[in-house]
Amino acid sequence: MLNIRPFSFSDIDSILQIESQSFPKSPYDGPTFLNLHYLYPETFLVYINTNRGRKEEEILGYIIFTQEGHIISIAVHPQVRRKGIGTQLLQRAMKTPHLKKVWAEVRRSNQGAQAFYSKMGFQITGLVPNYYGNEDALIIERRLQ
Ligand SMILES: CC(C)(COP(=O)(O)OP(=O)(O)OC[C@H]1O[C@@H](n2cnc3c(N)ncnc32)[C@H](O)[C@@H]1OP(=O)(O)O)[C@@H](O)C(=O)NCCC(=O)NCCS
Question: pTM to 2 decimals?
C-alpha cells in the first residue's frame, strides 16, 4: 500500500510521541526502537498521511513484526484511531509470504486491543502470568493457512 513504508531514522520523534500516548505504562524508548529497526529493517513499518499539499509526511502509526509472524508492537496515534489504520498495518503483516500464523501478546487490561484483534480474526490461545511485571499477557493468534 502506498501509505505504508519502512521506518527511517527521521521518524523516531513521531514514533516516540505515538508510543508515549499508546503505551503509557511501558513505552519503548528511542534506543529500543533503533534496536528493533536494526533487527527487523524490513518489517518495522510506518503508516504515513499522504495528503496532497503537505510538505512533510505525518506519521500516524507503526507496526513491528518478525518474518515468523510475531507482532512485536502496533500503535496508531490516538487522534486517528477507528479509521482503519491499525487494520491496514496488521493486514500488511499478515500478507508476509509463507506465514502459517500471526500472534501477539496483549495486556489483560487492554480491552481495546483485544477487541481490535478479535475483529481481525485472532483468538486467545494462552496466558503468560506477570509478563508485564505486575500484569498478565494474553497470547492471541490467528492461523493463516
Ligand atoms: C489497537 C490499535 C492499534 C487499533 O488501531 P485502529 O487504527 O484504531 O484500528 P481500526 O480502526 O483498524 O479498528 C478496526 C476494528 O477493530 C475494533 N476496534 C479497534 N479499536 C477498538 C476499541 N478501542 N474498542 C473496541 N473495538 C475496537 C473495531 O471493531 C474496529 O472497527 P470499527 O471502528 O469499524 O468498529 C489502537 O487502538 C492503538 O494504537 N492502541 C494502543 C496501542 C495498543 O494497545 N496496541 C496493541 C497492543 S499489542
Answer: 0.96
